[in-house]
Structures are given as C-alpha cells and as structure tokens.
Give the backbone structure.
Amino acid sequence: MTEVPAQRYFIDVSYKGTAYAGFQIQDNVHTVQSTLDKALSTLLRTPVVTTGSSRTDAGVHALQNFLHFDTAVALHPQFLYKMNAILPEDIVLKAIYPVPPDAHSRFAALGRSYKYYLYAHKDPFMKDRGYFFPYRMDTELLQQAAGIIKEYTDFTTFSKRNTQVRTFICSIRESYWEFNDTGMVYNVSANRFLRGMVRGLVGTMLRVGRGKLTLQEFRAAIEGRDCTLADFAVPPQGLFLVKVAYPEGLLDSPLP
C-alpha cells in the first residue's frame, strides 16, 4: 500500500454487544475495540490502535459509537466494503471521516444519548435487546422521576465504585420515558455519563414506578451522593448508545 502523510480518521460504528466483554480493549477477552483494531490492521497491513469515544459495558449495544486512528497508509477506494467483509456480523462500520490531527473522538464529543428498552410480554426477539419486565408500573411517577433528574448535576449516587473520574458533575439535556403497547423506553442525553450511570438511573426509577420508592426518597437518593442508594441491577442488554454528538463541521466530509 502507498505511504502518504499520516492522516487521522474518525469511524462511525454500530454493534450488538451480546458476544463481547465490553467495548474497551482488555487483556485476554473478546471486545468490540479489539475486533475493530484487528480488522483495521488486517486491511491496512500495519498495526492500528484505535481510541474510542465511549466505553460500553459487556452486553451493551451501540447504534452509533466513534473511534479514531492515525495511519500513513492510503485507504482503499472500497475501504468500507472491505472492512465490513472482515468484521463479524454483529459489528458494522457505517462511515469514515478524515479529521484534523488534533481531533479526539472522546474529548471532542459534545454529548451522548442513550436509550434503555424494557418489554412487558415474553418475546424471543427481544431477549438480547431489552429487559423483560412484566410488572405493573405507575407511568406518571416514572415520568416525574425522569423530570427530577434534569434538576440535578451531581450524579455521584449513580456512578459505580472504583471509577477514576475527577468529577461526578453531568449536565442532563433530555430525560424522559416513552410508552407503547410492548413496553417502555427511557431516553437520556447529557454532555457526559459516569460508569453505570444510565443503568443506575433506570433501576432506581423502576423502584419509583413500582411504588417501592417515593419521589421524595428518589430526590434524597440523588442528594445522598452514595452509590448504595441506587439500584444498578437492571441487565445490560436493554441499553443502547444511540448518538455521539460532535461540533458542527467536524464530520461534514465522509469518504465515499
């Protein structure tokens, strides 16, 4: 392959996380990022190490996640086609963008959006893509709890232990529930999220919806800044990373 000046690229990927031990590279386990790095290295015939925008846990899915990598190898005209031929069926590369050399897939992100899916009736097609939750819920209380979340910025309560973040401050832009004939979907967007945060929010709100926690107690849990006050027990397969937002203009020129 032809050598050219090093170029940084962002790649937009989707994946079903069921078969992976999470997104980020870890020793001796199968991850989304390690699978992408191997495919890129195979196609470009040189070692490639990516940097991801958002880490997802084992079993969590993504409709959109981004990574960046640098290479001095000229990309094949059918780069997308060839990458998707190498990648397994549960990972797809949707687009690739040339970006400035200082653009960082994680630090340049302005925000992220997640959805958490719950279904109320047994459905074999939802088994790996939602949380089977066949219980009566007070949907009005759930919606009120979701609205309360937007009033706060300190989410220490909803961060799992042993995290290495410097701050627990997050700016929640959207927080609401959708209801349909098959179940419920929680929607949340913020400038950043803490480890386990969305599942902690969902699990604790479900306690409100089932009458096991009052709205006042929900507020007290947030204000308590103690992760033992949150319920993280909801499973990973209901969680989807659906969007990563970047500054206008950064991703205006995808390669064909």
